[in-house]
Amino acid sequence: MSDAAPRTPLLIPPLGALYRALEPVAYSALRLVAGAFLMPHGYPKLFGTPGLAGAAKAMAAHGLEPALLFAGLIGAVEFFGGLLMAVGLFTRVAATAIAIEMAYIGFFVLWDKGFFWLKGGFEYALMWCAVAILVALRGGGRYSLDRLVGREI
After folding, report:
1. In whole angstroms, what is the distance from residue 122 CA to residue 47 CA?
2. CA 128 to CA 45: how far, in whole Å?
3. Helical packing angle, 16-46 and 51-61, nearest 10°
4. Is the link from the previous residue into 6 a cis peptide, with omega within 30 of 0?
5. What is the CA radius of gyration of the chain?
6. pTM value?
7. Is 133 within the bounds of a domain?
8. Cα–Cα distance measured from residue 71 to residue 49, given in angstroms and rounded to the nearest whole number
9. DSSP helix, strand, coil percent of the chain (3-state; round to 5)
């Protein structure tokens, strides 16, 4: 007897072959895109403009002290954590750090601005938090460096 749940019949059955073909890579694609899309948020904090000093000024404005330390940590989580999540190395650790950062941003920085991200709200941060929690719970998956090296934290 199989533990797999029976599949729900498809509304458009001919798409079943496409779904079955893409299913093995779908999760890894999500993990890759989520990590890669986060990296450009950390890069300017660490290596570009505004740099650590500019990022620290923004951290201080939100009450995060010592601001320079937090700017470095946040830049590292976004850039290096995004990179690690994208390639699936130390995936659970990287995704957990990202989830914590995004939860903080959503609940403590953006909450009072409302839901919609186009109005500066928390929607975007908490959506990325949810994605990072999913990745932290599931790990690197089939196509990851964690799987390649045979160890996962």
Report:
1. 26
2. 19
3. 100
4. no
5. 18
6. 0.90
7. yes
8. 13
9. 75, 0, 25
Token pair 């839901």 is found at 115
Question: What's residue 12's pLDDT?
Answer: 95
Residues 6+ apart with CB under 8 A from 96: 132, 136
* Residues 86-128: tens digit of each pLDDT: 999 999 999 999 999 999 999 999 999 999 999 999 999 999 9
Q: Which amino acid is at 133?
A: I
Residue 61 belongs to a domain: yes
Which DSSP symbol is given to 78?
A: I
- Residue 41 in domain: yes
Is residue 17 one of the residues assigned to a domain? no
40-64 b/e (C-beta count within 10 Å ≥ 16 → b): ebbebbbeeeeebeebbebbeeeeb
| E strand spans, the chain | none
C-alpha distances (whole Å) from 150 to each of 25, 88, 135, 143 are 19, 12, 18, 12
